[in-house]
């Protein structure tokens, strides 16, 4: 129940990759037959990925994943401009692959605005409208949040950015392959995507770059990927990504419907059975099957350990590093107090989960919370 962290490789995608690890191991830049077979594999995958997001194949640059795509989009664009006098905007709930790039750019002298979100984690269009300045050159806002599942109004946000003359990028790692993503309908200039979040292999992803958007390279070397991403292509990975993208398009509507229902069942049951539970993120406008909750008076990590002992794999927004408790920036951004943010658990359902899995969690989790609360110094007299 941790599909927002990663997904298994679909067996059909795995089978599509296999020949490129064995007999078709050519370098796509080679002139000979085996090189051309690898080239065909890469170009077929480019068409498959492009089709999934309604882009043209020439607009897809393969990378090593979501993190690299985010870095390439933001740093690659900023590299084409002078480093002084530029204003760039992002949101408080971004993945670190975006947020940390903005922190870096701020240190380099760029003017940075980090937009607040409402209690559901949504960037309200008016908030962006007010933050736009004559020198705003880039707006980067994620399509859906990995921790709380909230889907952003990207179409409206992109339109506001464009009205002010800025380029719009979105990190769509959590949505591509899960819900319909159409780059033309959204009106975005750049969009990041990762294979391992959509039942493809790890270590591969892509950046969609709308025709006419100019980027500078981040890697120097060969002329692969229109000189924007030097280095011999990860052919088996790219082929697996392409196959996974095609499968995602085929199963999407059925999968969305099923996951929406399973997620709703799980979320409603847990909120009914466990007192002092808060659903985080937008209750309706969220990733199908994404359930994020905060249980008051308990630590997320303790819950995860006890769930793991029972064979349930989930994750928590709060990260406990070397004894210092560091609650999630996303949960703090939606206005949760630290002590509540510490009790967060994310259950993200995927294609292989069933109603039985949901029933099992509903059977196990209330008891775990009850036991932890009984031991907690935060409950009862003098507690919260
Ligand atoms: C997983 C994730 C990433 C990072 O993608 P990788 O392919 O693992 O580098 C970036 N953004 C979001 C929203 C993610 O969920």
Write a brief structural summary.
By secondary structure, the chain is an alpha/beta fold. The chain has 12 helices and 12 strands.
Structure description:
This protein has 384 residues and is an alpha/beta fold. It has two domains: 11-248, 3-Layer(aba) Sandwich (Aspartate Aminotransferase, domain 2); 252-375, Aspartate Aminotransferase, domain 1 (Alpha-Beta Complex). The chain has twelve helices and twelve strands. It has helices spanning 11-21, 33-52, 66-78, 96-107, 125-131, 154-163, 183-186, 235-273, 300-309, 329-333, 338-341, 355-375; strands spanning 60-63, 87-91, 111-115, 136-140, 167-171, 190-194, 205-209, 277-279, 290-295, 319-321, 324-326, 344-348. The strands form three sheets. The chain has a seven-stranded mixed beta sheet, with helices on both faces. Helix 7 (183-186) links the parallel strand 5 (167-171) and strand 6. Helix 1 (11-21) packs antiparallel against helix 8, helix 2 (33-52) runs parallel beside helix 8 and helix 8 packs across helix 12. The longest helix has 39 residues, at 235-273. It is globular, with a radius of gyration of 22 Å. The two termini are 30 Å apart. The model has no long low-confidence stretch (mean pLDDT 95). The site of pyridoxal-5'-phosphate has 14 residues, from helix 3.
